[in-house]
Specification:
GO terms for molecular function: dipeptide transmembrane transporter activity. Helices cover about 75% and strands about 0% of the residues. The protein is mainly alpha-helical. The chain is globular, with a radius of gyration of 25 Å.
Length: about 350
């Protein structure tokens, strides 16, 4: 039975969409495999000997050889990588040499702290970044526009660890506006029930308002420091997209018809840059997950970033690989999700 033109068009769209999804999945897997292979090779170039970390500097040759065999380091590097992939396919990320716990368990324990910090920083950066970009595009060349350009430049040029240390010095040591490093004061750390892993939610569920206020006092400074990075990128890229869209003919026509500048910006220009905004927000959020490494180290925030930093100094290969896989997966998934949302919301991309 022959298909009608409508049915044939639907079938073509279905197979085209299926092919796009399959291509994205294959690209995702290949990218993750390449990321793991690159990180695995770099971990073997570390000058730190993991065998000596376990056996000790005064271990005998037989003990050294036995530990090396138990770790699988007496095999070729490619074979070690293949064994790691086999274990990873079964959900086994290995045992951390620092905590002596499964890496998957460590990541499940530390990842909520990173998600909480990055999400709050993203909300801060998105709100102020979009607002600054809209104000800059509303009156280009004005004081507000110059201020937005200066903030975006500072956000990119100032090292985030230096900004964090400066913030601790000013708002914690001098002004006492911040509660300092960590997620909670010691008095609350051992009394809080980690129901969700998110300290704001758990402290709210505890019913103790003082604990909730203490959690906010610890959170706001690293959120602002990390959010400055997102705000800089969002402001710069969205401002450029808005100004480029402002030069289109339909904007000139709308002005000729008497439409106000603010109305044109919000109702005509801003919706047409939604695809760019989605991409910028997704990439900014992914960069916050990566950039949290330095921020968590400065503020003693017990997330994946601090866990990875400790693993790097200790040359803990399983922990390094597991953290890299987690952050890389988040980056790739967010990028793929942004492409899909842009394809769905912007007909021009189709």
């Amino acid at each position: 039975m022959a298909l009608t033109s409508t049915e044939a068009g639907s079938a073509r769209r279905f197979w085209r969409g299926s092919g796009r999804i399959a291509t994205s999945l294959i690209s995702l897997l290949v990218t993750l495999l390449g990321l793991l292979a690159f990180t695995f090779m770099l971990s073997h170039l570390s000058p730190v000997d993991p065998v000596l970390q376990i056996a000790g500097d005064h271990a005998s040759e037989s003990t050294y050889a036995q530990v090396r065999h138990d770790l699988g380091l007496d095999q070729p590097v490619l074979m070690q990588f293949w064994h790691y992939i086999e274990h990873l396919a079964r959900g086994d990320m290995g045992i951390s040499r620092i905590t002596n716990q499964p890496v998957a368990s460590d990541l499940l324990r530390t990842f909520p702290a990173t998600i909480e910090l990055a999400t709050c920083a993203m909300i801060f950066g998105a709100f102020f970044g979009i607002s600054l970009a809209l104000l800059a595009a509303w009156k280009p060349g004005s004081i507000i526009d110059n201020l937005a350009r200066m903030i975006s430049l500072l956000g990119y040029s100032v090292p985030i660890f230096w900004l964090g240390l400066l913030g601790l010095l000013l708002f914690y040591a001098v002004l006492h506006w911040s509660a300092g490093p960590g997620r909670l004061d010691d008095i609350y750390v051992y009394t809080l029930e980690p129901t969700t892993g998110f300290v704001l939610i758990d402290s709210w569920l505890s019913g103790d308002p003082e604990m909730f206020r203490n959690a906010i006092a610890h959170l706001w400074l690293p959120v602002v420091v990390l959010g400055m990075l997102a705000m800089a990128g969002i402001t710069r890229l969205l401002r450029a997209a808005l100004l480029e869209e402002s030069s289109k003919e339909y904007v000139t026509l709308a002005r000729a018809k008497g439409a106000g500048r603010g109305r044109i910006l919000l109702l005509h220009i801003f919706p047409n840059v939604s695809g760019t905004l989605i991409t910028v927000l997704a990439l900014s959020y992914a960069s916050l997950l990566e950039g949290s490494v330095l921020t968590e180290t400065v503020f003693a925030w017990p997330g994946v970033g601090r866990y990875m930093t400790t693993a790097l100094f200790a040359s803990d290969a399983p922990a390094i690989l597991g953290s890299t896989l987690l952050i890389g997966s988040c980056f790739i998934v967010l990028n793929t999700l942004a492409d899909a949302l842009t394809w769905l919301t912007d007909p021009r991309t189709r």
